[in-house]
Amino acid sequence: MPVLLAVLLTLGCSGSGPAGETSPGEPLDGTTAAPADGTAEDAGHESIVVDAELWVDPRSPAARQIAEWRAEGREEDAETLRVLAEQPLAEWPPGEGADPGPRIREVARAAGEQERTAVFVAYNVPHRDCGQYSRGGAVDLEAYRSWIGSFADNIGDAEAIVILEPDAVPHIVDGCTAPIHHEERYTAMSEAVDRLGELPRTRVYIDAGNPSWITNPADLVVPLHRAGVGRADGFALNVSNYRPTEEVVAYGRELSALLDGAHFVVDTSRNGNGPLENGDPAQAWCNPPGRALGTPPTTETGDPLIDAHLWIKRPGESDGECRGGPPAGEWWPEYALELARGARS
Q: Which of 5-19, 117-131, 177-191, 279-293 has the highest mean pLDDT?
């Protein structure tokens, strides 16, 4: 039984690039999101348990896709996609030359009105993704300082979780990022930890890759310290990847022990069927077929070291132009449907 379906049944049900943006003129007031009791209600449909702390975007790409499919008569597909649309997802504000402030402010305000926590991803470090599918980022350190300043200013005193710079530290460790850029990156991330750490109700987790990437967690210790993990709330694992939760947790415990008991969060957005085991290992992470949504987002993990299971990579948004996918971060409805089907089969 896929992980997501098993969890939903256990909880009593009857039955994880830039984020999708709200359409102009449509407020993020949460009117179609899950109510405060933690269930998503829709007359004539089964309920889906939703974490009571985390904010659900009522205008996510999945929610809009459901409306489109229902208008087209694709009721069965629309109903299947509800398992994705009614869960809280991380928000990836725009980077590079764009100001992240307006989107962050909008989301923070909507989450605050529901007394929920918004989850954001800061993904704009210079020389991002070292020239691969998600290449880009701020043009230099000064541009990054300005960007992260706007990021922090617009969270303000809202309740928030920030995942800081997916891939940035692991790409230093694996050599993908050129050594000439290492000091700049450490400075950018360390300053970002301090800037975000000034906020009264924001928790910050530095990305630390996944067990199949940096196989020896000891290799991450010095880089994470230089990036500011000692002043952050912990680290994040499995972002945009498919490693099974049990494997990730075991790895996280090893890394935590090397970091004086640091806490961590786990991306469970697409790991319901684990990773793709056949084919080219170098491409196993990029839009692999046959995957499924994983454990629903929750801050109630039952483990004092694990602060949350989160859907950091937004399920249904492409990893890149592989296997027929659109550019990284773009919504891919048929892939989203496949992930939802995998979770419900």
A: 177-191
| Residue 259 clears pLDDT 50, i.e. is over it | yes
Q: How confident is the model at residue 28 (pLDDT cuts 50, 70, 90)?
A: low
Q: Is the pLDDT of residue 6 over 80?
A: no
pLDDT attached to residue 242: 96
Return d(Cα 1, Cα 182) in angstroms, integer: 43
Query: Is residue 245 within 8 Å of 3, Cβ to Cβ?
Result: yes
Q: Which sign, positive or negative, has the C-alpha torsion 257, 263, 87, 62? A: negative
CA dist 247 and 301 (Å) reads 15
The CA-based angle 272-234-30, given to 5 degrees, is: 60
Catalytic residues: 129, 167, 319
Secondary structure string (H, E, C) spanning the chain:
CCHHHHHHHHCCCCCCCCCCCCCCCCCCCCCCCCCCCCEECCCCCCCEECCCCECCCCCCHHHHHHHHHHHCCCHHHHHHHHHHHCCCCCECCCCCCCCCHHHHHHHHHHHHHCCCEEEEEECCCCCEHHHCCCCECCCCHHHHHHHHHHHHHHHCCCCEEEEECCCHHHHHHCCCCCHHHHHHHHHHHHHHHHHHHCCCCEEEEEECCCCCCCCCCHHHHHHHHHHCHHHCCEEEECCCCCCCHHHHHHHHHHHHHHCCCCEEEEECCCECCCCCCCCCHHHCCCCCCCCECCCCCECCCCCCCEEEEECCCCCCECCCCCCCCCCCCCECHHHHHHHHHHHHC
